[in-house]
Amino acid sequence: MIDESNAILFDDLGTKAYKKLKEMIISGKLKPGQKLNQVQLANQLGISRTPLLQAMNRLTSEQLTETIPRRGTRVRVFTNNDLLSIFEIRGRLEPFTCEQAAKNISSDQILKLQENISQMKVSIENNDEAQFKTLDNEFHTLIIDSSNNTFIAEILEKYVPLMHAVNLLKPMEKSLQDHKNILDALIENDSLSASQLMYYHIYGSTKNKLIQLLENRG
Prior knowledge:
Layout lengths: L3 H24 L10 H8 L3 H13 L3 E4 L3 E4 L4 H25 L2 H19 L3 H18 L3 H16 L6 H16 L3 H13 L1 H13 L1
Antiparallel strand pairs: 1-2
């Protein structure tokens, strides 16, 4: 039987493993359809299988991974309808959260977004797309949290990473400029501009890329 102290330890390690695996999926280090080798991942993360299984179960509940009977767990492969549905959820809800963030964002949250953009510049200079994808997800999550709407935040923080996992980012330079414009609107507490900028950020070339991806998949 696992005593209480060990249970707390496993929970802590499971959370750390969850965050690391989620980052690997978002950044593209773990790709759609790739099987999660428990032994390899446990060794790589320096943990036992118990916290690793906790992390994998959490990722499955968030639809980032899926378990195939007798085949194990893999990074989820999304159908065309899945991708369209996720995209519509983001496109309709995220501009609203950006509008709310413009009204509620704190100076500390502004500083975090500014630091995020500074790190994005470095990732572009280093041509580090994996790091940029992680930072892009963080940027959107920070804005969602700044909206102070916990119910919508729970929905979006589940679905925003899914779009990163299937590589629907704009070119890094274009995405960075969009983020700068959105941040300027947030600093000015301009809720209308913030909402509109987020809308076009999502529905611009991202939608075109999604359509192209779906056409290529047939």
